[in-house]
Design brief:
two-stranded antiparallel sheet
């Protein structure tokens, strides 16, 4: 049986409106809550339920925040920040991956 050809970018994240598909839950869940809570509480502005403008406002704000974060930060910034925060031994070990030459941080040998 012959192998089926696959595209090289099959596993890249899918973006819609500048937001990755894995991040939409952080936009849609608060939008749904902001949309439904005024209906449950019976809040109306004239003949318009308050849920529609409030849900639309929350959606647009969160969409703007996610697009701003994506455009203003380099790729993988959050995972790198977590890695740096978790690494508690950074102050006690020599620099990694040749950040500095060994002669800079190593004390000279005395006889």
């Amino acid at each position: 049986m012959r192998r089926r050809a696959t595209r090289p970018n099959v596993f890249r994240g899918l973006k819609r409106f500048g937001v990755y598909s894995t991040d939409w839950k952080f936009i849609l869940i608060p939008t749904g809550i902001a949309y439904l809570v005024p209906f449950v509480l019976g809040l109306w502005v004239g003949y318009v339920p308050l849920g529609f403008p409030l849900g639309l406002l929350v959606f647009l704000i969160l969409l703007g925040v996610f697009n701003y974060l994506r455009l203003s930060k380099p790729a993988y910034w959050l995972s790198q920040k977590f890695d740096a925060e978790i690494d508690r031994w950074a102050a006690f070990r020599p620099p990694l991956r040749g950040d500095l030459k060994p002669t800079v941080w190593k004390a000279p040998n005395r006889k």
